[in-house]
Amino acid sequence: MPVSKIVVIGGAFSGPAAAARARETDERAEILLLERASGVSYAIGGLAHALGGEVDSLAKLDREKARFFRDTYNVEVRTGVEVVAIDAARHVVDASGENVPYDRLVVATGARSIVLPVEGLSEARNVFRFRRLSDLKGILRLLERGAKRVVVLGGGYFGVEAADGFLRRRPKLRVTLVERGERILQDFSPRASLRAQESLEAAGARVLANRNLISVSGGKIARELRFEDGTTLPADLVVVAAGVEPRTDLLKRAGAKTRADGSLWIDSRCSTSLPDIYACGVAVGVEHAVTGKTFWTAQAAVADRTAQVAGANAAGGDERLGGMLGTAIVRAAGVVLARTGWTHGREPEVAVTRIHAPSHDPFLPDASDMSVEIHFDRRQGRLLGAEVVGGPGTDKRIDVLAAAILGRLGVSDLARIDLAYQAPFAVARDAVNVAGTVASATRSGKARAYSAAEVEGAKDFVVVDVDAKRGPGAPAIPLEELRERLAELRRLAEKGPVVFRSATGRRGYLAARIAADSGIACGYLSGGTR
Amino acid sequence: MPVSKIVVIGGAFSGPAAAARARETDERAEILLLERASGVSYAIGGLAHALGGEVDSLAKLDREKARFFRDTYNVEVRTGVEVVAIDAARHVVDASGENVPYDRLVVATGARSIVLPVEGLSEARNVFRFRRLSDLKGILRLLERGAKRVVVLGGGYFGVEAADGFLRRRPKLRVTLVERGERILQDFSPRASLRAQESLEAAGARVLANRNLISVSGGKIARELRFEDGTTLPADLVVVAAGVEPRTDLLKRAGAKTRADGSLWIDSRCSTSLPDIYACGVAVGVEHAVTGKTFWTAQAAVADRTAQVAGANAAGGDERLGGMLGTAIVRAAGVVLARTGWTHGREPEVAVTRIHAPSHDPFLPDASDMSVEIHFDRRQGRLLGAEVVGGPGTDKRIDVLAAAILGRLGVSDLARIDLAYQAPFAVARDAVNVAGTVASATRSGKARAYSAAEVEGAKDFVVVDVDAKRGPGAPAIPLEELRERLAELRRLAEKGPVVFRSATGRRGYLAARIAADSGIACGYLSGGTR
What is the count of residue pairs from A and B with beta carbons less than 8 Å apart? Predict the structure, then answer.
């Protein structure tokens, strides 16, 4: 059998992973990795952490990994070589003018930062993107020279990660996070976005939403940003993190199919529409494990999983990509936000339950409160998606919920699953169990859960606070007194259905169970007011 | 409808949980909780942490919770009342001489410490069990009076937890952990036991295995422990944590069915064999989610889940208990051990894969190595059980694997599941993914995995070290040179199948893939030598 030649384009993250997997699959293949930058880079995920001083040297790490990669995987790496064209019919790529033939091609060109079409932005030398080690180096150089006023443009994952990194740096910087839309982190619920904003502000940042940048003044050094609403912002350093988009030009020019959202079309074997050409990394669209529809997300897990499949199949394997969940996590100073699965369903059969629970036994120090929101199918009870917001342990709950979704568990399974309990790690009845129990009760109709939006939007609800003797702007009956004050509650209920409100939702839920049992039309505010 | 009267026996953990759940299910029922101690106690899980000074006051916590419980759940609590007999036919219990009638009875008598039949042990006033607040108070009193030499008898979960607590206390104590069997934490693999032992020793403890206590001398104050092998041990304070057993006498006397292992028989609704009597807590046997067989374990999750089901059904609900996984976690000084599912299968169709992977991105501080061992069905690939040993993040991986087992995921699902990635929480290809990938390769026969026991037990294997130029007691070919030294490897392979050995197992695995591709009969040491 002749030795096959596998060419991999792209050295950021999924390219090297695909090359390694190809080697594991075929020990004899000739494998060549081409990267247009001067070095391969494994450390994209570390940029924000290097800003904050949590990482010493990403460059050192990259060098070590590159050597291990070459020696261990026997992959030839050529850097500083840009592939400008693919001739799919002839099985040849044009690499900086040289024709490089291939038997199988793996394209891992990744995503690129969205360029804002703003006057003066691209000329300024103190404006950076946030994708590569070279961006990081430029940013660190300015910080070392005393830049203090940092503006991050873009309130998505990358922007918040960058802002978080700047906020951790000592001595403290003046960090402003600017979002064009109405709130940061729009992949999350409005409530979670607000938690993130408040947390960043508590750490000293300014967070500005609804600010559309129209121009930058100062010439070679951007000194002032001007927004559509007439406001301005001074800056020593600007980071553009206005999102990323799939980098697909090369394959598109070669005739490969793309999708409506701009991502590359691949099948479950990571084959593109062109013969012997595979694609992987954050340029491709993948199937959603819950909806079955194709979606695009710039998460490292997608980059890795597609790289594994593309690399194996390019080397003659037969791997299939499964559905993905779009699991994501981001730190916003003191709070961590995480999501997984399908949380954007607004159909009537999708129900949402939000609960609050401690990260671990509250008699130990550092226990903190987290909110767990689960989205599930009202009829079958099947878990569809989840959002967790809290401190340490947020990552654990979202990962458990991700596994639960992939395993097609229902809310009653969540209620009963036995997770590891010891006081430093959890409570005996974990947040995940509580969410499952409350969701099961909602399904059974025993305690109707209302969202904040439902309650705020309608006038006929009677909101009753059950935490304190007196609630702000609402009648109050403490939960402990509710049983003795049912007559009073009945009078209130004449005006409309009662919604019990409490800080965490738990006491409101209990109140609803008590009142419903006395025949009072009622429900509770899911997730509480916190 | 007449108001039903629900009596709950036991106030430690599952009794109150069952009472609360009964109240949520039926607002009108009369609910009475009887506890023989002087107070209800929620804080069993905190005993070890109070030893180490991590918890200020468990008693305070208990008092606050008891008040919340009474006010919020409207449950009448009578402490200092011991139920000495149940008349199942007449629906009456004898509570310290008073006849208390019930419509439905929930028995949550829990587990009791195993009493060692050792001369002099029960008389000594400096010997304690480790189950109740009163035990803790007695222990703390002696420590405050200057007790320094602490002996913990029993190397199971409770004993290790207690030893861990003592080791955290300042000023430092002299802690000795004594195990009768050949190793501590026998619920885990021998390798994991050894890790725990080494970790406890590194923290200053002595760990003695194969020590069978035969007598205690000193009279009212135990001063010296004497073991069967003739050795002795001086002590100021002795904690007996030699395991627990289901406390079933009361129900047995009333005629309830028990199982061969001594646990109470219940059905999936937590009904005992007696009419209108439910049981919950760590006295009952539950169904194993993987094997379908009944098993008994003294884990808090079992106490909680059975309490939820028993409480709901006693109040007229219709809840069912699902299979349990026996998930457990324990700290042993610097290392955390966790397990879930079925890890005791020795059938040929059960395969085991062990890998090492970092807890989170190693370019950040505090990243540590963890080992993940998964047990799976060789033919179908279905995950059966798992063991994780490491530092922070151990709890996360075991919980993800617990959810995966309950969702009947296979090893290829583990390979692809997208977990939350950001550098402080994980690596893009998480330990769980790596375990799934390596297990998939094992199934496909691409790289045969050998356990340490298999290799040590057989003489015909040729062990080759691929980490260094020279391995202790074995030929060495560094992975990087393997491709150039295949001829040498072939000569070695003439003596028997080659097993590649490396610290983490990863390099051994890669070596096996390389050599197998050249037609050399080989495999690798799963989990490595670390």
Answer: 236
Q: Do A46 and B361 touch (CB under 8 A)?
A: yes
Select from B289, B125, B370, B363 the least CA-distant residue to A133: B363
**Hey, which residues does A410 pair with through a beta bridge?**
A382
CB nearest A49 (choices: B26, B364, B416): B364
Number of independent structural domains in chain B: 4
In this complex, do B517 and A404 lie within 8 Å of one another by their Cβ atoms? no
Residues B30 and B82 in one domain: yes
Tokens standing for residue A416: 């009963």
Looking at chain B, which residue has its C-alpha nearest residue A440? B319
Same domain membership, residue A359 and residue A298: no
Chain B residues within an 8 Å CB radius of A325: 417-418
Q: Indicate yes or no: CB of A413 within 8 angstroms of CB of B322.
A: yes
* pLDDT digit string (tens) for chain B, length 530 residues: 567 999 999 988 899 999 999 998 888 899 999 999 888 877 778 889 999 888 877 777 777 677 778 888 899 999 999 999 999 999 999 999 999 999 999 999 999 988 888 988 988 999 999 888 889 999 999 999 999 999 999 999 999 999 999 999 999 999 999 999 999 999 999 999 999 999 999 999 999 999 999 999 999 999 999 999 999 999 999 999 988 999 999 999 999 999 999 999 999 999 999 999 999 999 999 999 999 999 999 999 999 999 999 999 999 999 999 999 999 999 999 999 999 999 998 888 999 999 999 999 988 888 999 999 999 999 999 999 999 999 999 999 999 999 999 999 999 999 999 999 999 999 999 999 999 998 998 887 777 888 887 887 677 888 899 887 666 667 889 888 888 888 889 888 888 889 998 887 888 888 888 888 788 888 888 877 77
CB contact under 8 A, B413 and A404: no
pTM: 0.92
Query: Does any domain span residue B120?
Result: no
Residues in B closer than 8 angstroms to A417, CB to CB, are 325, 402-403, 406
Residues of B in contact with A24 (CB under 8 A): 441, 510, 513
> Are A409 and B406 a contacting pair at CB < 8 A?
yes
Nearest chain B residue to A158 by CA: give it.
Answer: B422
Instruction: Based on the fold, state whether residues A70 and A153 are members of the same structural domain.
Output: no
* Contact at CB, A418 and B302, closer than 8 angstroms: yes
Chain A residue with CA closest to B416: the answer is: A305
Distances (CA, A) of B68 to A480, B37, B61, B72, B75: 8, 19, 11, 6, 10
- Domain identity same for B257 and B205: no
Please report, for the domain that includes residue B469, its CATH number. 3.40.250.10
Whether residue B362 is contained in a domain is answered as yes
Determine how β-strand B83-87 pairs with β-strand B92-95: antiparallel
Q: How far is CA B234 from CA A218, B197, B218, B237, B317, in A?
A: 79, 21, 10, 9, 55
Give the distance from residue B148's alpha carbon to the nearest chain A alpha carbon, in angstroms: 25
Beta carbons within 8 Å of B265's beta carbon, 6+ residues apart: B256, B257, B258, B259, B272, B273, B284, B285
| Residue A325 resides in a domain | no
Instruction: Give the separation between CA B343 and CA B340, rounded to whole angstroms.
Output: 8
Q: Give SS3 for B22.
A: helix
Measure in Å the smallest separation between the Cα of A407 and chain B Cα atoms: 4
Q: What are the φ and ψ backbone dihedral angles of A311, each rounded to 5 degrees?
A: -65, -45
Q: pLDDT tens digit string along A366-390?
A: 899 999 999 999 999 999 999 999 9
| Residue A13 resides in a domain | yes
Q: Which residues does chain A have within 8 Å of residue B27's beta carbon, measured at their own beta carbons?
A: 513-514, 517-518
CATH number of the CATH domain containing B376: 3.50.50.60
**Complex-level ipTM:** 0.91
- Which residue range forms the structural domain that includes residue B504? 448-530
Which of A399, A430, A469, A520 has the most B C-beta neighbours within 10 Å, making it the best mutation to test the interface with B? A399
The Cα–Cα gap between A359 and A427 comes to 7
Residues B187, B40 share a domain: no
DSSP state of A353: E
Q: Chain B residues with CB inside 8 Å of A426's CB?
A: 395
